[in-house]
Amino acid sequence: MKHIMTGKVKEVYEVDADTLEFAYTDNISVFDKIIPSKVPHKGETLCRTAKYWFNLLSEEGIRNHYISEPSKDRMRVERVDIIRDYSKIDGKTTNYLIPLEVICRYYAAGSMLDRLKSGKVKPEDLGFPAGHEVKRGEKLPKPFIECTTKLEEHDENLTDEEAKEMAGLSDAEFQEIKDTVLRIDAIIAREAGKRGLIHCDGKKEFAYDKERKLMVVDTFGTLDEDRWWDAEEYAKGNIVELSKEFVRQYYRDTGYHAELYAARDSGQPEPDIPALPQDIIDRVSKLYVDMYERITGEKF
User: Fold this and answer.
1) Can you tell me the distance from the alpha carbon of 51 to that of 49, in angstroms, rounded to the nearest whole number?
2) Paired sense of beta strands 66-71 and 33-35, if any
């Protein structure tokens, strides 16, 4: 096999003209930075969790790129083109990665709270009355779907019109993507709810196949792409993060997050991200294994 790409958390290999193999690593990334610390078992749990969801999608008739799992930390998938020149994408383009990350939020959390505080997002954008003070953990009146860039160095928020233009999508095609996200999230909520989990938010990626039929690609429903809370604790008024969010919080607490984003905003060189302490690495590794079992109901 020919190695063709190194991503933040996986290596990509060419099997043949129509097939890729993803090799999931134990790397962990936050804020578009790869942390110089390995997390034992992380790659295998991501791969096996993604496989679990892809199999469920296939059972539900939702097209996706998954083919097979050669080993526990590797996955074979249908190959599509990555077109970085957006001017070459239009409504007739086939077999390409749609250059968007599609995020659906059900609760007020994470970066959404930062954007609310800064005024970049208003309560009424989320379905609340104007002037409503949105609290952390508050359930949104309706799902909030938005897109960011996929192929840029850093994810950038897009309006719906910007997203459609960038990805060569008609109004109907863009709506199909949104509808598919909601279908997938209904499956996730159904399955995770059986095991005491709240699916707070998550991102999906899509492509068009050779007949320009929509298919779900990459990875979803894991601790990397999605935010999970403990349902029993939430009912008591407590938010217990069950994703890598507490790693992000570690870097917020140390001041690195503020330093990084100040550099980005001012166009200065970005500071290198420090390694994680061993006790955090151990916690993260245990969390990935425990959550694999809780999300899927399967033993690691």
Assistant:
1) 5
2) unpaired
All residues at 6 or more sequence positions from 103 whose CB lies less than 8 Å from its CB, including other chains? 145, 146, 147, 148, 201, 202, 203
Strands (E), the chain: 2-6, 10-16, 19-24, 28-30, 33-35, 66-71, 74-78, 96-97, 100-107, 139-149, 157-158, 197-208, 214-217, 226-230
Is residue 48 a contact partner of residue 72, using CB atoms and an 8 Å limit? yes
Residue identified by tokens 């994680």 is 276
Q: How many CA atoms lie within 13 A of 277 on its CB side?
A: 5
> pLDDT tens for residues 26-77?
999 999 899 999 999 999 999 999 999 999 999 999 999 999 999 999 999 9
Residue in the block written with tokens 């970005």:
270
Look at residue 56 and give its three-state secondary structure: helix
What domains can you pick out in the chain, each with its CATH number? 2-296 (3.30.470.20)
Nearest alpha carbon to residue 46 among 23, 20, 80, 19: 23
Cα 248 to Cα 134: distance, rounded to the nearest angstrom: 21
Collapsing DSSP states into helix, strand and coil, what is residue 40?
coil
Residue with token string 């096999």 = 1
For the full predicted model, state whether its pTM sits above 0.85: yes
